[in-house]
Amino acid sequence: MNGRWRRAQQLCVIALGIFSCSVFASQNDQQVIARGKYLATAADCAACHRGSSQQDAPYVGGYAIASPMGDIIASNITPAKGTGIGDYSEQEFRRALTQGIRRDGQPLYPAMPYTAYRGLSDDDLHALYRYFMAGVVPVDRAVPETQLTFPFSWRYAIHGWNWLFLKKTPVDADERKARGRYLVDVLGHCSACHSPRNGMMAERGDRYLAGGEAGGWIAPNITSDPVSGIGGWSQKELVQYLRTGRNDKAQAAGGMAEAVEHSLRFLSDDDLGAIADWLKQTPPIVTVQGTKAAYQYQGGGKGRAAGQALYAVSCASCHRLGGEGAYDGHFPSLTHNTTVGSERANNLIMVMLYGVQRQGETLQTWMPGFADSLDDRQLAELGNYVLQQFGNPAVRITPEQVALQRAGGEKPLLITSLHYVFWGGVLLVLIVIGAWVKRRVKH
Fold this sequence. Notes:
The chain is mainly alpha-helical. It contains 19 helices and 6 strands.
């Protein structure tokens, strides 16, 4: 009897141990999933992998990402089987994030920033996998395939691009710097927009964070240069901008507004501080000709009457007739404003065309666009009035510039030269065939 009792006690102890281990493992997994959620937020996954409407579930895909080659449709990355990534093993998930290769072996377009995610740590990759598999609601919904024109529709050409430009991201030894660099270069993939690209659409490492262009918008220079970049911003101003999308010098619009809304406003104070610290110590790169930073301009010219009338009707109710703004910067001042003081008017034109939509830490910002109500000539008049009265009076906007921005901005060399490359290739083939035929005739 005593032997049976002892065995029963032993079995209870074993069962209790198994249960305790199971509870501990479950708690540990929940911590990993929570960490993966934070990492996915820092990586701004939701900004691209959203649906085509605001009512769609997170990560359901279908959103059209504008690129110089055409619209790239974001994939469904919920854990749904078949239509999402539910069939991905952890190794396949890692390969997609760090090498840009899908489960079926097809390469992803570099609109997916795997060139940056290549620097993700093993622990972070595991946490991201656990989050997307166990922390995201599966949505069984197929999204359309991306349909680009030839030769960009030929995905296998991306293997060659990867061979040329896919590099390992270096790691800084200093802990605080390492965290800032990791957030900027890897998770936040800031250089994907804020670095210029070469003729093959790869980032230029020698111009790191010196400014780029995407979809008509200029992603400004964010190096430590005091005139061209953010060297004149304090650490506090940088953190405020990242958290809320605005400070006394600039306001986020376009893709940066999306980064604030979907990612940056949710990051911890320590992480935002680390980002600011890293940006403040980057090598300064000069990209403007003047001696004044964009936020230092305050007009000084005299705008035309036609532009003044348009401004009074379209802008003054929020920005006020004197351009001073209102409600403690919620409607920003147009003087000492980076967008209005820039040497290039691209972002001013884009804001006039498409407005601003941004959810900051607590406040939502909305400005209507005038793409449908004002024509190119009127927008040029309005923009020139704003520049003369409140910004950089040396800059001029033409109706042709407005039309170009309305069409998505200036195309990169890879796109504009494609016609000549194609016919040059045809000519080369004809020359080779002609030489071969001539040689055959001689023999």
